Amino acid sequence: MKRIRALWRFAVTGVAVATLATMAPAPASAAPDLSDAVALVEPAVARIDTVINYQHAIGAGTGFVVDPSGTIITNFHVVQGADSIVATVLGRQYPVELVGYDRQRDIAVLQLNGAGGLPTVALGDSSTLSVGEPVVSLGNAGGSDHPLTHEAGSVIAFNRTISAQDELTGSANSVTGLIEFAAPVRAGDSGGPMINAAGQVMGVTTAATVTFRMGPGGKGFAIPINDALATANQIRSRTPGDTVHIGPPTLLGVGVATREQSASLPGVVIHEVLIGGPAQRAGLADGDVLISINGAPVHSATELTNVLDRHYQGDVVDLVWLDAGGAQRTAKATLAAGS
Q1: Euclidean distance between CA atoms 269 and 263, whole angstroms
Q2: Are 269 and 149 in the same domain?
Q3: Cα torsion for 205, 206, 209, 213, to the nearest 10°?
Q4: Are residues 254 and 228 in the same domain?
Q5: Please, is 243 exposed, middle or buried when counting C-beta atoms within 10 Å of its C-beta (0-12, 13-18, 19+)?
Q6: Mean pLDDT in the chain?
Q7: 203 inside domain
Q8: What are the C-alpha distances in Å from 197 to residues 32, 62, 153, 184?
Q9: Could you tell me if residue 243 is inside a domain?
Q10: In this structure, what CATH number is given to the domain that contains residue 52?
Q11: CATH number, domain with residue 272
Q12: What is the pLDDT of residue 11?
């Protein structure tokens, strides 16, 4: 079984405030000692381990506890596609329920089953951060059998954008409004807390794959905690929205690729149909071109995942597709709960 650290590949786009983007991070020797802040937060950091049966892969990521009953905030890409999720807090492992997620904002809320009386993090106000302020990201890049990583640095810029591609589904997404900080974060640090010198969580670290490099010294990106908490609270209230999905993702049971003939033509090419899944039961096969779901055109893997996020297990949807001979076909499919 292969090991993965994250399922996303990142590129950085957008422009930070010009006067901020040119500022160099402070030398490592000048960095203040944040060990007291780390000690305050570390007991409430969760190591997250996942298994993806489809890829025969295991993954590692991070989260942090915000409620003594075991509510955890993390990145969605840390748990995306996982068939099993286990979180470890204070050396104890807990099975995990995915409460819900926002794919576009890359936030997920997890619930540790059987947890109680856990330490929690102190949440700060990310609007008070300033360029040059020291921060440290706590994470699980070393793996759950190693000490937590402490990636220290300073804030470089605000309002940054990361373009991310999910290597599992092929869907792409842009996460905006990020804090950029000078610290060599790695993919297993994804979902962990980025804290200030007072030990307050100021952001949710969003890291790249282990093969992605930002340049000498390394850089990290974090979702401001004010934004992350607004999304997480909606998920915790189990209130679905345009981008918030409650519970596990919805499964159609296809692997797809965007059509190469013309970007203007709707449809994604089905390269794999899950045996026994909703798509196969509806009559779709490898090589077919899926055109729409419930009248919503599907031009890309990204659009497909976005459409499915607006549906839930048991929903019956109308599918339109072209078969291998070019004939248009229609059928209904009953969606299932996926990983």
Answers
A1: 13
A2: no
A3: -80
A4: no
A5: middle
A6: 85
A7: yes
A8: 9, 20, 11, 18
A9: no
A10: 2.40.10.120
A11: 2.30.42.10
A12: 42
88-112: string of b/e by CB count within 10 Å (b at 16+)? bbeeeebebebbbbbbbbbbbbbbb
Per-residue pLDDT reduced to its tens digit, 138-165: 999 888 888 999 999 999 999 998 876 6
Please provide the distance, in angstroms rounded to a whole number, between the alpha carbons at the two ends of the chain.
Answer: 18
CA-wise closest residue to 249 among 61, 7, 62, 67: 7
The predicted-structure confidence for 226-242, as pLDDT tens digits, reads as follows 999 999 999 999 999 99
Q: Taking the model in full, what pTM does it have?
A: 0.86
56: left (phi over 0), alpha (psi -120 to 50) or beta: left
Residue with token string 């996460």: 175
CB of 306 closer than 8 Å to CB of 174: no
Q: Identify whether 242 is part of a domain.
A: no
Does residue 164 share a domain with residue 307?
no
109, 78 contact by CB (below 8 A) = no
Phi-psi region of 148 (alpha: psi -120 to 50; beta: other; left: phi over 0): beta
CA angle, corner 113, sides to 109 and 117, nearest 5?
Answer: 90
Instruction: Categorise residue 287: left if φ over 0, alpha if ψ from -120 to 50, beta otherwise.
Output: left
The pLDDT value given to residue 212: 41
Residues with a known catalytic role: 77, 106, 190
Asked if 202 and 129 count as a contact pair (C-beta separation under 8 A), the reply is yes
